[in-house]
Design goal:
7 helices; 137 residues; mainly alpha; 2 domains; Arc Repressor Mutant, subunit A
Length: 137
Amino acid sequence: MKDTLLSLINSGKPLEIKRAMAVRMSIRGYSRANIAEELGVSVQFIDKWKPIYFEQGAEGLKLKYKGSEGYLSKQERQSIIKYIQSNETITSSKLKDYIKAQYGVEYNSPKSYTDFLHQANFSDKKTQKVNPKGQPE
């Protein structure tokens, strides 16, 4: 039991760490009030996770959410990055049009398009003809 809790504590996932620490401290005899104060959680948090641990073990304390499936496959994403790299310059709006036409996907967030640009080692910043910090001669 101890080793499984330690593996969760060393997982690097803050919520899993808090769950494991709360259970571990409870097993070691700390009061619920002390645990809640030390970990910054509620007493109900401790009451919820301790029985789950005894019923399911450390697996029960792990995060279950794995994220949603993306709109595009890995191959499609790689194809888009290759498309971006095949252009000398490309705008976010041109990229948006390309993705919508080729894959039928339109993202709500402009960040999705700038993420593609960054993955292709492109910048989403506009270049300036004159350095604004330069000294005029």
